[in-house]
């Protein structure tokens, strides 16, 4: 995954594409259409995007994935607590 502390020279197009795919898949549960076009430009889901904008989108998607994971855990805990209560009442 992309680490902001890395030097820009170490951020290869493959690493950027892989990071975006991973983040997108976590949120949308499907693969995005993304290709590196040239220099700092990418084609993402039918739209031409600059590398910096892609970095911001990766960060946003990671935040959404974390939020979804927290919500899922909360729902799971609530469901488990209801099942335990129901079993105690039997």
Topology, pairings included?
Elements: H1 13-28, E1 34-38, E2 41-44, E3 47-50, H2 51-88
Antiparallel strand pairs: 1-2, 2-3
Helix pairs in contact: 1-2
Q: Would you give an account of this structure?
A:
By secondary structure, this protein is of the alpha+beta class. It has one domain (about 10-90). It is built from 2 helices and 3 strands, in the order H-E-E-E-H. It has helices spanning about 15-30, 50-90, and strands spanning about 35-40, 40-45, 45-50. It has a 3-stranded antiparallel β-sheet. A hairpin with a 2-residue loop joins strand 2 and strand 3. The termini are far apart. The mean pLDDT is about 85.
Q: Give the N-to-C terminal Cα separation.
A: 48 Å
Q: Report the strand count.
A: 3
What is the beta-strand fraction?
5-15%
Give the H and E element order: HEEEH
Largest sheet: 3 strands, antiparallel
Overall 3D shape:
rod-shaped
Structural Rg: 19 Å
Give the count of structural domains: 1
Low-confidence stretches: none
Please state the structural category.
alpha+beta
Question: How much helix, percentage-wise, in residues?
Answer: 55-70%
Number of helices: 2
**Strand arrangement across the biggest beta sheet:** 1-2-3
| Average pLDDT | 86
């Amino acid at each position: 995954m992309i680490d902001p502390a890395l030097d820009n020279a170490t951020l290869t197009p493959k690493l950027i594409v892989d990071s975006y795919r991973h983040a997108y898949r976590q949120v949308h549960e499907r693969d995005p259409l993304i290709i590196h076009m040239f220099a700092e430009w990418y084609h993402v889901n039918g739209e031409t995007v600059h590398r910096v904008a892609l970095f911001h989108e990766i960060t946003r998607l990671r935040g959404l994935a974390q939020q979804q994971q927290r919500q899922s855990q909360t729902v799971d805990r609530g469901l488990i607590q209801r099942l335990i209560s129901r079993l105690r009442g039997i």
